[in-house]
Design goal:
With 320 residues, the chain is α+β, with helices and mostly antiparallel strands. Helices cover 20% and strands 39% of the residues.
């Protein structure tokens, strides 16, 4: 049996589709109108030669702006192109390769700036809008959704960047450092990476991470992290040893190397030991140990738990 849709029903369906499309377009264009005046194009010069370029955005009216560390790391000269056509020289305030974030500052006042949203409130499926300068095309807008949360990326220093946002808003070289915003024009992430040759798999550093890092970079010019001086790799533990010592993990961090007179060396660790906890918190992998070595541990006594053969030992250690 054939069925037919009346002209009036078809018109109603088309009207509904149009209204939905209009709502989406209105949301995206409204967010772009709010955000784009604060987004900049960054040109990098190294040793008086043309270097790379990227994006950034102002986070205060007095000229502080956020971008990626990999955009500006090692730069000799930084020039910022504003949305209103101005070209300004920027100073590097602080650079943190561990989080792939950096703060620059230009000499200007009353600048349009963006608010960093609470990234803990971000949900998969919500609209995500990226603004930046891919391939040098300034003020380019792409839109998509938040595809996933809680991803991890490895920074240039080897540490993992946690709580990374995955999006399918199209990013290309040059988008790095630009904002990923919600429909209110608030920043939910700092665009940082794409996976080649995959399509629609892009990443942004969560705004909560960016807020914390930016505050410290503006205050101190760097992020303080503690150091114990061992080179490690994740290794499986012998099951009988795990059961005998009632360990909560099946892997640990093998001490592959020790720096001379480092906290780890002074604490009595030896190459071949396997670290399983720091202050009672399990360290099943190198990245788990890195997470525990925060700045507030500098100079503070801690207890490092490790296996030497099948013997479980606990020694005091004072990270630097």
């Amino acid at each position: 049996m054939l069925s037919f849709v009346s002209d009036s029903a078809a018109d109603a369906a088309a009207t509904t589709d149009d209204s939905l499309l209009d709502a989406y377009s209105t949301a995206v264009s409204g967010a772009v109108a709010t955000a784009h005046p604060a987004v900049v194009h960054i040109e990098v010069r190294s040793n008086d030669a043309p270097g790379g370029s990227g994006s950034g955005f102002f986070i205060s009216p007095d000229g502080y702006l956020l971008t990626n560390s990999h955009v500006v790391h090692g730069a000799k000269e930084l020039r910022v192109f504003l949305a209103d056509g101005r070209k300004l020289t920027a100073d590097l305030i602080g650079d943190d390769p561990d989080s792939d974030l950096a703060v620059l500052r230009v000499s200007a006042d009353d600048l349009s700036h963006l608010t960093l949203a609470d990234s803990a409130a971000v949900r998969p499926g919500q609209i995500a809008i990226a603004i930046g300068s891919p391939m040098g095309f300034q003020q380019t807008v792409t839109a998509g959704i938040v595809s996933g949360l809680g991803r991890s990326l490895r920074g240039a220093s080897g540490r993992l960047i946690d709580n990374v946002i995955q999006t399918d808003a199209a990013l290309n070289p040059g988008n790095s450092g630009g904002p990923l915003v919600n429909t209110r024009g608030e920043v939910i992430g700092v665009n940082t990476a794409i996976i080649r040759p995959a399509q629609g798999i892009c990443f942004a550093i969560a705004s909560d991470t960016a807020r914390w890092v930016a505050a410290w970079l503006i205050k101190d010019g760097r992020i303080r992290r503690s150091f114990i001086g061992l080179g490690g790799q994740s290794v499986p533990l012998i099951r009988k040893v795990v059961r005998y010592h009632h360990l909560v993990q099946e892997t640990g961090v093998l001490v592959a190397s020790l720096e001379l007179n480092s906290p780890a060396a002074r604490a009595g660790l030896l190459e071949g030991d396997i670290v399983v906890a720091l202050d009672g918190v399990a360290t099943p992998a190198v990245d788990a140990l890195h997470k525990l070595l925060t700045g507030d541990r500098i100079g503070e006594r801690a207890i490092i738990t490790f296996l030497r053969g099948v013997e479980l030992r606990r020694h005091a250690i004072i990270p630097l």
